[in-house]
Write a structure and sequence with these properties.
With 271 residues, the protein is α+β, with helices and mostly antiparallel strands. Among the domains are: 97 residues, Alpha-Beta Plaits (2-Layer Sandwich), CATH 3.30.70; 81 residues, Alpha-Beta Plaits, CATH 3.30.70.20. Helices cover 32% and strands 12% of the residues. The protein contains 9 helices and 8 strands. It has a two-stranded antiparallel sheet with strand order 1-2. A two-stranded antiparallel ribbon has the order 3-4. The longest helix is centred in the N-terminal third of the chain and has 39 residues. It is globular, with a radius of gyration of 28 Å. It starts with a helix and ends with a helix.
Length: 271
């Protein structure tokens, strides 16, 4: 082979390898982009105890997996490609293995970046004045009841979720109601207390129906938000929500016109 042909062949080989590499990189980018887009579209992810709010959690979590290793019940998993969750982040599926509410919360103190922030599950001991972990302060999610498919709402006696709850008769209570259909029996209807429920998922795990009629959702998905316009005037604690709210300036002329309109009941009846 002549020197000229060797140069042309080498050049062709180099170009071919370059384009192949570019293709692999591009394909990899498309694949990972697809996974990330899929993950971002899924909001129903349950995080370990003491996790920061989702956006902050994703910024802080370095995907080290230490929390997963420390979980004694194998509750926590690390998301992998195809799980429809941000890759490398910890999560759990309550129906499979719930959080068993370890008093020492071993998954939290080991977090190197405070993506699992132990201050969120810490109390001050009244006697020693020392900080102590309190798993009952967790807000992993909240249990929601599908009343159409919960057999307790049919009148069949079932208290599986109530009995499974680690905060017995606190996070889930039973409401007794007369069964008008039979006239003889009582309904034992479970009711979730949103301010106490930790979202551990033991109720969902224990549910006897084929697909759980009680299930845990992230709190930001399941719960509404009152906002700054309404307050429980009878509840001093609720007033604290508005401590940092700025006063809204109201146009007096517009306000008077609105009041006049509302007070003119004859026009309202005509409309």
């Amino acid at each position: 082979m002549t020197p000229d042909k060797q140069v042309k062949t080498s050049r062709r080989s180099a170009l071919r390898k370059m384009f192949q590499s570019a293709g692999f990189v591009g394909m990899g980018g498309i694949m990972w982009s697809g996974y990330l887009n899929e993950a971002k579209a899924v909001e129903l992810i349950l995080r370990p105890p003491a996790a920061l709010e989702e956006d902050e959690f994703l910024k802080a979590c370095i995907k080290c997996g230490v929390c997963v290793e420390e979980c004694p019940y194998d509750t926590l998993k690390l998301a992998k490609a195809g799980d429809s969750k941000p890759i490398g982040t910890p999560y759990f599926i309550a129906r499979d293995i719930p959080c068993y509410m370890c008093p020492d919360i071993p998954c939290v103190p080991v977090c190197p970046t405070d993506a699992l922030d132990k201050t969120l599950v810490t109390d001050v001991d009244e006697e020693t004045k020392e900080n102590v972990l309190n798993i009952n302060k967790s807000q992993m999610g909240i249990a929601v009841i599908d009343q159409e498919n919960c057999i307790a709402f049919w009148g069949i006696q079932c208290d599986a979720c109530y009995r499974a709850c680690p905060l017995l008769d606190e996070a889930i209570v039973l409401k007794y109601e007369k069964n008008e259909r039979t006239g003889k029996h009582a309904f034992l209807k479970p009711e979730v207390k949103s301010d106490i429920c930790t979202g551990c998922g033991m109720c969902e795990h224990a549910c006897v129906t084929e697909k759980a009629a009680i299930y845990v959702l992230p709190r930001e998905v399941a719960l509404g938000k009152v906002g700054d316009y309404y307050i429980k005037g009878w509840d001093k604690e609720d007033e604290k929500r508005l401590k940092d709210v700025k006063d809204v300036e109201v146009d007096e002329e517009t306000s008077e016109e609105a009041l006049d309109y509302l007070n003119n009941w004859e026009d309202l009846i005509d409309e």
